[in-house]
Amino acid sequence: MVLQKGFLGKNKIEITGKNLIFLWAVSFVMAFLLYGLFVLIRESFRISTASLGGQEMLVLSAKETFFYNIFFAALASVFGFSLALKLSIENWSLFRKIEPRVRQRAILHDQTGFTWYLLFWFTKIAFQYAIICLTWPVWFDIDLYQNFKYLFFLLPIVYFLNSWLTIQRTFRKKAYPWLLSSFLVILAHSIILGNINFVNVEKINEKILARNVKYNYQVDLPKSVYYNTIPVYPPNIDIYIGYDHINKDSPKIIIQNKNGYQEVSIDYLEEVIHIKTQDWDVHKKNSLKIILRIDKDVPMGYIQLIRGELRRIDQRKIIYAVLPKYSKYPPNYPELKRLGIPETLPIQCQETLNFIDSLKSLKLSKYHLRFPWNSLCFSNYWFKNSNRIRINLRSNELVTLNNEKIDITDIKMIAKKFLQKNSSSAVVLLEVNDEVNYNKYIEVKEQLELAVYEIRNEYSLEMNNQPLRYYQEKLHEEVEQQYINILRQGAWGIWEMTPEELELERLAKG
Q1: Disulfide-capable partner of 340 in 139, 216, 321, 501 (CB 3.0 to 4.6 Å)?
Q2: Which domains does the chain have, with CATH numbers?
Q3: Helix, strand or coil for residue 498?
Q4: More confident position, 156 or 53
Q5: Are strands 494-496 and 426-432 parallel, antiparallel or unpaired?
Q6: Is the Cβ–Cβ distance between 252 and 241 less than 8 Å?
Q7: Is 7 in contact with 165 (CB distance < 8 Å)?
Q8: Which spans are transmembrane here (predicted)?
């Protein structure tokens, strides 16, 4: 048999109304099913981000949700159209009973190859991005909606144009009208499906975020340029202190647990800590640090009560959680949860409390009060015999140095010069009024901590030719003694007076 030129193109395709209905029905049904699958995968991924990686749920706005709905609908519509076109060609009797098999197989091979190649590429990229997001909240750094919006328009278009070769080889001279009509149908499918919500996104957000303290209470942390990184191990206990969004009359103490969170009283803190640490070994218990995440408007009088309870139960290692003052990230960025100002609270001595109770029953005007010099419980004795200056945070607007008004920004320079001049015998006493808010307290504490840090850092550079940060990050046996020597610089340094010390001072004055 002699093949004639153009034998592959002699047969023309004849399409009836039933053929068109079949093509549209298959295309729409497949698009509908795939769109639902894409949305369910997206929501499963979002829910997973709340418990994996950075522990911060990916929350989409209404505009973002609609945008991604349209994108998934367009992708599903194009894939549905490609599949419907492939099925139609495989069942060629829909168009014409007699058609060369060579042409059919060539078209099917190209259509299937291009479709699965693009689908494999898209799935691979999406899967890799999902793994990264589940490991780390990368959406804080890479905002696909804001920065790469054009990609979501191009992907479905490129995917659709992948069918051009199939359409051209199938419909020949009518290829352009078919391409245009197919595009309009896919566009219509995308708009229709994009407005269908298979899941209630807002309800999912509310259900998950309802278990998160910071979304249900006002806990706005203060900002600081001085902070340390909180180690991940051993585990720490977070105590939130903030306000109810509705009732802001008094601060609340909130503890996060497996079921969400619970409000507790100050007296219940000991039991909470016991429950959380009952299965810990001795080493972990001794290394425990309490992270205080305190709203910046909470008065220091309330914080003093909490610190007093922590001292009473001998949980004196605390960290004041803060946010970096100059950060490009929002407050809910997971890495910012690991920043804070560490402090070891003074021991609460029962001897001191008993001594105060006994003094209150006496008429002190008849006596000359002396503090026991050989007891660590009476730091007033050491203050009295040391070179000292006294910074008094009297209100949110007034800070004094030895009863003279100063500006907060001058505190670091004053404290640094004083500590360097008087060496180990110097102490900067800090007194804080109960009415001062936590934000103002952190501003003053920041300046004092910076003064001590700069003294130690300068000493480290002079003696070891290494910054202090080097020893903090590479603490091991070889540098341990050097690090200890550095910490001795300004070791006494800053001392915040406790309620007992202030009370003893008041009683001593009569």
Answers
A1: 321
A2: 9-209 (no CATH), 213-344 (no CATH), 387-491 (3.30.420.270)
A3: coil
A4: 156
A5: parallel
A6: yes
A7: no
A8: 21-41, 66-87, 114-138, 150-167, 179-199
